[in-house]
Structures are given as structure tokens and as C-alpha cells.
Design a protein that fits this description.
The protein has 246 residues and is α/β, with parallel strands linked by helices. It folds into two domains: 112 residues, Cobalt-precorrin-4 Transmethylase, domain 1 (3-Layer(aba) Sandwich); 114 residues, Methyltransferase, Cobalt-precorrin-4 Transmethylase, Domain 2 (2-Layer Sandwich). The chain contains seven helices and ten strands. Strands 3-2-4-1-5 form a five-stranded parallel sheet, with helices on both faces. Strands 6-7-10-8-9 form a five-stranded mixed sheet. It is elongated, with a radius of gyration of 19 Å.
């Protein structure tokens, strides 16, 4: 594969629905890179990436370490390849700029060192949620990563809808044990009930990973949030109080 005269970094996303959401722009970046790092363990997507570029490597978490240690190692590896004169592409699930530390950090560091670096847009959980739940951000929308929302106690406008990403990760740095998950959901429930009340119905949402499978949409009162079926890719949608006209 012929290299460009100047090494560059590109980060692309596969979207939420495997193989259906990937853009031609993303495919082109994967094909032309000298080395590709990808963050999906889903077999069809992994096979596609490896077929497009034989120099593709799966990003893996360091056993026994916090997630941030793994993120830092991915950043260091990509920057090291850029310094070698290689064109690097990183592929993420969903949108690479939504709740993804490593892509943002590599872009920042690459540009600081004088390399060309670009993030390409992709379909995120937010885009899928707007379509599947009929939520319209024109009425006002607040969006946070759930662990940050709980830790930093952001002020809320109860009239606007609220979207919380990664609700399974509250209280720990990775995908924790069931007890940690339940404790995190209980904490989130109490925090939100202060503003919306325990009877306020929210929705646990998961975008469809496959075209033939429906998205997960589970309404639940806030006071029963910890009883909901929550996974590592669950998002919480909290409608504003009062509703809106179409």
C-alpha cells in the first residue's frame, strides 16, 4: 500500500446498526490507512474491517486495569505510529466523538505535534434515539454521560428532556458487577427523583444492533429504575415535565 507523503490520523464510526450505518467515507478511510485500530468485537463488523485492511488490530482492554489505562495505551500506540510516518485510522462503534476519550485525545495530540487529524461523523445513539422515541431536540435537550452527571451534580431544567449515556457505568471505571450496577442505578434514581419525582416515567433505550432486530424501549417509573433490564449500552431518556405540542 502506497503511503501519503504526510502521515495523518482519521477516526471513523460504524454507526449503531452493524454494517447498515457505516458510511462510504468511513470505508474509504479504513481502506487507505497503513494501520487500523478498531473497537468493535462484533464478528461481522470485525471481519469487514479486516477484509478492507489486513493491517487492522482490535483494541483490547488491559486485564486488571481501569478503563482509562487502556484508553491511554491506545492513544500512545496511535501517536507512536504517526511518528513512524504511518497513516492511522481508528474505528469505533457508534459515533467516534460521543463518549469516546481516545479518539478526541489522539486528534488533540496529533494536531499539537503537527500531524493532520480528522474525525468523521457517524450515526450515534442520540440519532437513533431521536428516531425511535420520537424525541425532538427543538423542545430543549440536556445530554450527559451518566457517571459525570451523578458526580458533578449538574443543574437540571425540568422542562427540557434529558438524555443520560452509559448509565451502567455509574460508580466504577468499567463494566462492573451486578451489585455495583444496581447501586449506581439506585443513586441515579434518587438524583433524578429530586427533580422529576419518583412516579415520572423514563425510558431505558438501546439502539438496534441489527437491521432485523427492534430497538429496546423499556418505560419505567424512576422509583423502579434499578429493576430495569440495563446493559453496558443502555441510554436513559427522561422526558421533560409538561410535554410539548408538535
Amino acid at each position: 500500500m502506497a503511503k501519503n507523503s504526510e502521515p495523518s490520523f482519521a477516526v471513523v464510526g460504524l454507526g449503531m446498526t452493524y454494517l447498515a450505518h457505516v458510511t462510504q467515507e468511513a470505508l474509504d478511510q479504513i481502506k487507505k490507512a497503513d494501520v487500523v485500530y478498531y473497537g468493535t468485537a462484533e464478528s461481522d463488523s470485525a471481519k469487514m474491517i479486516q477484509k478492507l485492511n489486513p493491517n487492522a488490530k482490535m483494541l483490547e482492554y488491559i486485564p486488571g486495569k481501569q478503563r482509562q489505562d487502556s484508553y491511554n495505551s491506545w492513544v500512545d500506540a496511535a501517536i507512536a505510529d504517526l511518528r513512524k510516518g504511518l497513516n492511522v485510522c481508528m474505528v469505533s462503534y457508534g459515533h467516534p466523538g460521543v463518549c469516546c476519550f481516545a479518539p478526541h485525545e489522539i486528534v488533540r495530540r496529533a494536531r499539537a505535534e503537527g500531524f493532520s487529524a480528522k474525525m468523521y461523523p457517524a450515526i450515534s445513539a442520540l440519532d437513533s434515539l431521536f428516531a425511535d422515541l420520537g424525541a425532538d431536540p427543538r423542545h430543549g435537550m440536556q445530554c450527559y454521560r451518566a457517571p459525570d452527571f451523578v458526580d458533578k451534580c449538574y443543574a437540571l431544567d425540568s422542562r427540557a428532556s434529558l438524555i443520560l449515556l452509559q448509565i451502567c457505568h455509574i460508580g466504577h471505571s468499567g463494566v462492573g458487577e451486578n451489585k455495583q450496577k444496581l447501586e449506581g442505578l439506585e443513586l441515579l434514581s434518587r438524583r433524578l427523583s429530586e427533580t422529576y419525582g419518583g412516579e415520572h416515567v423514563v425510558t431505558v433505550y438501546e439502539a438496534s444492533l441489527y437491521s432485523e432486530v427492534s430497538p429496546k424501549i423499556e418505560p419505567v417509573p424512576l422509583k423502579r429504575l434499578k429493576e430495569a433490564n440495563v446493559s453496558g449500552v443502555s441510554t436513559l431518556f427522561v422526558p421533560g415535565i409538561g410535554g410539548h405540542e408538535n
